[in-house]
């Protein structure tokens, strides 16, 4: 019976380790999304407001918005992944 309890405890620790790993990886992608948003989107908006309108600014703005959304979505999916009801 003691061996069964040890195995259950090890299984519980492994689940917690996987959960913590997923949360950290998801947080990493959220942080990347914040960095991309700050550099590309906010930086380009400031450039558009202060300077002449150029096509490259709008392209950078759209790439930044799409990359931000993609990275945030990836972070969300990684954190909320459900595998085998763990």
Provide the fold topology.
Elements: H1 2-50, H2 55-79
Helix pairs in contact: 1-2
Task: Give average pLDDT, whole number.
Answer: 89
- Low-confidence regions: none
Report how far the terminal alpha carbons are from each other: 24 Å
- Overall, the morphology is rod-shaped
Question: Count of helical segments?
Answer: 2
Query: Main sheet?
Result: none
**Strand share of the residues?**
under 5%
SS elements, strand count: 0
| Structural class designation | mainly alpha
SSE pattern, N- to C-terminal: HH
Radius of gyration: 21 Å
Helix percentage range:
over 70%
Architecture overview:
By secondary structure, the chain is mostly helical. It is built from two helices and no strands. Helix 1 packs antiparallel against helix 2. The longest helix has 49 residues. The radius of gyration is 21 Å and the shape is rod-shaped. The relative contact order is 0.15.
